[in-house]
Design a protein that fits this description.
Chain A has 7 helices and no strands. Chain A is mainly α. Chain A folds into 2 domains: 73 residues, Rna Polymerase Sigma Factor, Chain: A, CATH 1.10.1740; 81 residues, Arc Repressor Mutant, subunit A (Orthogonal Bundle), CATH 1.10.10. The radius of gyration of chain A is 17 Å and the shape is globular. The N and C termini of chain A lie far apart (39 Å). About 3% of the residues of chain A have low confidence. Chain B is α+β, with helices and mostly antiparallel strands. Among the domains of chain B are: 103 residues, no CATH class; 191 residues, no CATH class; 172 residues, Immunoglobulin-like. Chain B is built from 17 helices and 33 strands. In chain B, the strands form 9 sheets. In chain B, strands 3-4-5-6-7-8 form a 6-stranded antiparallel β-sheet, with no helix packed on it. A 4-stranded antiparallel β-sheet of chain B has the order 12-13-14-15, with no helix packed on it. Chain B has a 4-stranded antiparallel β-sheet with strand order 19-20-21-22, with no helix packed on it. The longest helix of chain B is centred in the middle third of the chain and has 41 residues. The C terminus of chain B is likely disordered. The chains are: A mainly alpha, B alpha+beta. Chains A and B meet through helix 1, helix 2, helix 3, helix 4 and helix 5 of A and helix 1 and helix 2 of B.
Chain lengths: 165, 767
């Protein structure tokens, strides 16, 4: 796997994944840099683009978790400065429009522990199938589905009992 | 309120600004990616592998003497026929009707039936809460002894007697069918066999050890006098008891039969052979003699340096003329001096070394050469091991480690180890190769001649040691192969068969060589390890699979991205904690104080005898140059005297000395007293801490609680060489329930002093 090609083809995707997992742009760049180093050192030969994408997301995710662990972050990632939107646990407004609902949803997702945020992002942001996402996270299919289900439960609790997902 | 997760991507892209990849990021990655960081990783991985193997070895190896590798080594060091093999375990003898029927000595009553009957008496559990048993009359149902309850009981059907444990925890009592209690309550009770038991009287004075003696389980009659401790030795149906009384006998002990009859008072019991002979070192003697169970000295009083091993009706013995073999009737099969070395093989064959040509042969009891294919295989493998040993010795340890590191490095540089696939397995391959190097390092350590030369030379010890390490290396090689094979999870069969082969190899080898010797063991180790590693590496290059690893990955114990390293560190941390914790606990429990006095003498040869110096000089004269290494490596079957003589000759030869004189031999003798908090067996070890001398023999003393101890060691000190610093330490075994067998489970080392050996070399030495 050529690092330059990986960078140009998947750099944005990796950065985005790291950014959403860690919430910090500078850390995200460091994580992607580390992922590229691994690409250079390991030079994995993968079958097709799907496998490439899954492998890169997995490596990026692992590095992000390592970074977060080293930074002694707690499960709840600090919201970045650029992200200013209504708190998900503020009183839900029946009249709130789609705009507000999206903001609350994003905030709730970003407030999930990384362990549960990652399956949500892989499924709903990167639009991977459950099987692909499970492989990325190194989980069995069943374990992944359980984790995703718990993530949704946590979102439902954060957004309010009335919330439908 | 309805939230739509399917809109998450759209919403996030709309609200969270995307970072654009910066070309500088790629440049930095390219620069860093080329920087190698293998050494640090490899070192970490090597340490991890080594510790994993240690943990595996400890977990896999279970022996009756103790658990884990340490237990095996202890079993090995005690030998199968030495005094150390004594034990007083509760022997289950299904064929012996006098064995226990029910007994739960530790107040855990799960094994005790609620009700049992013997000799007209019923023992019945009173209630579950207290778990007490009452002793009831079978006919009337009344308590035999009102108000007395038992916590546990045993029954000896043959003698119709029972053993009860008093409900207040005040000891054990023997009762008979007539419900009469014998005098005294025992603090311990060990069934010794043949209707006898070793007991200790409970004593109110807890500061003094309870005296032990032998009783009959039929009537409780005392069969022996009091001893500080009594051990047993069993061989076939026969058993011997050894009564130690350090205060009176100063290390000597009585050897008794099961009737309590003292056969002989001895300084050392070598073993029990053919169920009818003892090898005994009598007080004041440095040689062993053979005697029968009546204490009559056999073989016309022939003095032996070593007796054992016994196999298929033959017994290998060593006299001052060399090694010989006697049969079970006391006739010489090979008189001492017939061959240079003799070792008993299976099927009544002997492996011998010709005295003139130094060739190894396999002969039958008539001395006819019956070299077989199997033996030729052994010989070829031994030669291969020897060649490898020579090569390693030529390079030196740093040298051959460097070679393997270079191989590893080259593999990486040439991209061989990077031929991956989908998975980032670099760390895994590094671990595999690091394991390879570490394995060679450990083999080199144990194979190193410096270690071999000072090892004890009992062949059974070597065999046990070999068996122990075969486990160790098997576990290691299996692990290494799986690590290296892991990267691809596509082809399970090759990896599976490789793992099976690695596991089975020691057994195959052992079936070829029933009595493993040092040389064979070395060869086996190398074969197993090299074979396992080679298979692993080969399979690695053909994209193999480990089904087991696949399962581990599937169940999240490991995953594909090397995160299983964490598991390793947990294991390491746990093992370290356990070891340190156990060590601290034991050391805190046992040794209270130890005082020593060291005395250094010159020209005293201890049990080897002064004739040994002539042996060494004869070897220096007779053997061709540089032949000592091969002699030491093929030392299987040698007596201690022969072995140490060759080792000493080699040492002298290497240092350019062609003659050994008695003033170059030093004996360091240490006497002292030890005081322990609880009953413990204390053994003294004296060893040179610095290089500059060759240890040629060691006799360690044995002390019981609060006893005196005496140990000695003989060394060769070359003229003009600085005298070594000596280290004296105690190996302290815990005696749980006064059971020597259990004692082997715990021991620790206590350093008690250093001795400066005076430089006794004469200034006008001719050398």
């Amino acid at each position: 796997m050529d690092a330059e090609r990986v960078f140009h083809r998947y750099g944005g995707l990796m950065l985005r994944h790291a950014q959403l997992l860690m919430g910090q742009d500078s850390l995200a760049e460091d994580a992607v840099q580390e992922a590229l180093i691994r690409v250079i050192r390991l030079n994995p030969q993968l079958r097709d683009e799907n496998h490439e994408k899954a492998w890169l997301l997995a490596v990026t995710g692992n590095i992000c978790r390592d970074f977060l662990r080293k930074a002694k972050r707690r499960r709840e990632t600090r919201m970045p400065d650029w992200f200013d939107m209504p708190s998900p646990d503020s009183q839900p407004d029946e009249e709130a429009g789609q705009h507000d609902r999206d903001a609350r949803l994003i905030r709730a997702v970003m407030a999930l522990p990384v362990k549960y945020r990652e399956p949500v992002l892989l499924t709903y942001y990167h639009e991977l199938t459950n099987q692909q996402a499970a492989e990325v996270m190194g989980l069995t299919h069943a374990a992944f589905r359980t984790r995703l289900m718990r993530a949704r439960d946590m979102l439902r609790m954060t957004l309010g009992e009335e919330a439908e997902l | 309120m309805k939230y739509d997760l399917n809109r998450l991507k759209e919403a996030m892209d709309e609200r969270i600004p995307m970072i654009q990849p910066d070309e500088g990021l790629l440049d930095r990655a390219m620069a860093q990616g080329k920087r190698a960081r293998y050494p640090a990783r490899a070192l970490t991985a090597a340490a991890a592998c080594l510790l994993i193997v240690a943990v595996l070895g400890a977990l896999i190896g279970k022996t009756p003497e103790g658990s884990g590798l340490k237990g095996m080594l202890q079993a090995a060091s005690r030998g199968s026929d030495g005094q150390g093999a004594a034990n007083t375990v509760r022997v289950e003898e299904p064929e012996d009707l006098s064995s226990y029927q029910h007994y739960s000595p530790d107040y855990a009553h799960s094994a005790l039936p609620d009700e049992a009957e013997f000799g007209g008496v019923v023992i019945r559990k009173l209630n579950d809460a207290d778990r007490l048993f009452a002793f009831l009359d079978k006919e009337t149902g009344e308590e035999v002894i009102p108000g007395r309850f038992w916590q546990a009981y045993a029954y000896f059907p043959k003698t119709e007697t029972g053993l009860v444990q008093l409900g207040n925890g005040q000891g054990l009592m023997l009762v008979d069918k007539n419900r009469e209690f014998f005098d005294g309550a025992y603090s311990s009770f060990e069934y010794a066999g043949g209707g006898t038991a070793i007991v200790a009287n409970r004593d109110e004075d807890e500061t003094e050890p309870d005296p032990m003696y032998l009783i009959s389980t039929a009537d409780g009659a005392r069969l022996s006098r009091d001893y500080e401790i009594i051990g047993t030795m069993r061989s076939g149906e026969n058993r011997l008891l050894m009564g130690h009384d350090t205060q009176e006998l100063n290390g000597e002990f009585d050897i008794m039969d099961l009737t309590g009859r003292v056969i002989v008072r001895a300084q050392d019991l070598g073993g029990l052979y053919f169920d009818k002979w003892l090898s005994v070192r009598l007080p004041g003697e440095s040689w062993y003699c053979l005697m029968d169970l009546n204490g009559e000295i056999l073989m016309d009083g022939t003095r032996f340096g070593h007796v054992g091993m016994e196999k298929d009706g033959y017994l290998v013995v060593t006299t001052d003329k060399g090694r010989g073999v006697i049969d079970s009737e006391g006739n010489w099969v090979f008189e001492p001096g017939t061959y240079l070395t003799i070792e008993i093989r299976e099927n009544g064959l002997f492996r011998v070394m010709d005295r003139k040509t130094a060739e190894m042969m396999q002969v039958d009891a008539r001395g006819v050469n019956v070299d077989t294919w199997r033996f030729r295989v052994d010989q070829a493998m031994a030669a291969a091991g020897e060649a490898l040993g020579r090569w390693q010795e030529g390079l030196g340890k740093p040298g051959y480690i460097l070679v393997y590191v270079l191989i590893f490095w080259l593999a990486l540089r040439l991209g061989l180890a990077r031929r991956s696939g989908e998975l980032p397995h670099m760390l895994l391959s590094e671990l595999g190769f690091a394991a390879y190097v570490v394995g060679l390092l450990s083999i080199g350590h144990w194979m190193g001649l410096d270690y071999v030369t000072i090892w004890p030379t009992d062949t059974s010890t070597e065999g046990a040691m070999g068996a122990a390490f075969s486990w160790y290396l098997t576990a290691y090689a299996l692990l290494a192969s799986m690590i290296v094979c892991y990267p691809r999870l596509r082809r399970p069969k090759p990896a599976f068969f490789a793992g099976m082969a690695v596991m089975l190899l020691p057994w195959i080898w052992k079936s070829l060589c029933a009595d493993m010797t040092v040389a064979e063991w070395q060869t086996m180790s190398v074969t197993v390890f090299m074979g396992g590693a080679l298979l692993a590496v080969l399979l690695f290059f053909v994209k193999p699979v480990g089904r087991f690893m696949d399962w581990c990955a599937r169940f999240d114990a490991l995953n594909e991205y090397a995160r299983w390293v964490r598991v390793i560190w947990w294991a390491i941390a746990a093992a370290a904690l356990i070891n340190f914790g156990a060590g601290c606990w034991i050391s805190g429990q046992e040794l209270i104080s130890a005082t020593t006095h060291a005395d250094v003498q010159r020209g005293v040869m201890g049990s080897l005898g002064n004739a040994w110096i002539d042996d060494v000089n004869r070897m220096l004269d007779d053997y061709p140059e540089d032949d000592f290494t091969s002699q030491v490596r093929s030392a299987s079957g040698m007596s201690e005297r022969e072995y140490t003589a060759i080792a000493a000759a080699r040492y002298l030869h290497k240092n350019g000395v062609d003659r050994l004189t008695d003033d170059m031999v030093l004996r360091v003798k240490v006497t002292g007293t030890v005081k322990t908090r609880r009953p413990a067996r204390v053994q003294m070890v004296i060893e040179p801490e610095t290089d500059g001398s060759c240890q040629i023999s060691a006799e360690s003393g044995l002390a019981l609680p609060d006893g005196t101890i005496e140990g000695s060691a003989d060394f060769i000190l070359l003229p003009g060489r600085p005298a070594p610093e000596m280290k004296v330490w105690l190996s302290i075994s815990q005696l749980a329930d006064r059971n020597l067998d259990i004692a082997a489970q715990y021991w620790y080392r206590a350093d008690i002093g250093e001795i400066s050996v005076p430089d006794l070399a004469p200034e006008d030495s001719p050398y």
